[in-house]
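Q: Got a minute? One more chain.
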Amino acid sequence: MNSNKSKITIQKDDLAAEPVLRVELPELSAEPSPTPTTQTHRVRSRQRYITIALAVLLLLLLGIFFLTWRPWLSNEQWTERLATSVDRSVIRIESDDGVGTGFIVASRGNEHLVLTNRHVVGTSPYVRAVLRSNISVRAIVVGFPNNKDVDLALLRINSRGLQPLGRIAVFSSVRPGAEVSAVGHPLGLDYTITDGIVSAKREGLFLQTTAAISPGNSGGPLVRRDGAVVGVNTMVVLPEFGQSLGFAIRADYLLDHSRWQFVSDVTDLLDRVKR
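A: Always. Here it is, folded:
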């Protein structure tokens, strides 16, 4: 049985081209603009780095402060520390004019330079220096200020186990009200410490202090809270004329060598004076 096949004729014109979707894209730059999320991440990262850097800096500053100032945090601590350090730095001076005090400002091996008052050594070229160990050594007078009104003198001694007391503070750095202690041998009482403040600065040469000073303290150091030597204890107003009126010559007078005349060459020792 023959079957009739149906034929479907499609004209070419009836074939439509498949539609094409045209999308116009914006031109892309070399670096795509960051999205808000990226910007936020960058800001937060930058803030985190700054915070970390500031924290590290703060810790470093606190560490430096702690290491530098810990021994001097309270009046009790700093004076006790001073009391233990004077044994190898402060000496008793005995001369024909009586008893006084001196302190070491520079050392080179067993050679030491001692600063004291002119009136303590008098006119003798030699005096006796008595150490805390009660050992006596000869002290040679090696220098005086050119100005005879400046009551200072330099001695040289030879002994083991001694060291400078501390650096010499510049006069301009000393402020009225600063806490200080005077070290010496008042009335022959060895290694006595009295404390007070710098009351005032006088005539560009003297420090007035409330730290008790008596005969025997002359030539001893006036030490500031930070351990620096600010003055050389020199005189006191008698109690019947005034209370707590002691005076020290500025210690940094030693630093200007042109103001001094030296009996012998102590240049090497002078160059070792801490300032």
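A: The chain has two domains: 38-70, 81-270.
Q: Perfect, thanks.
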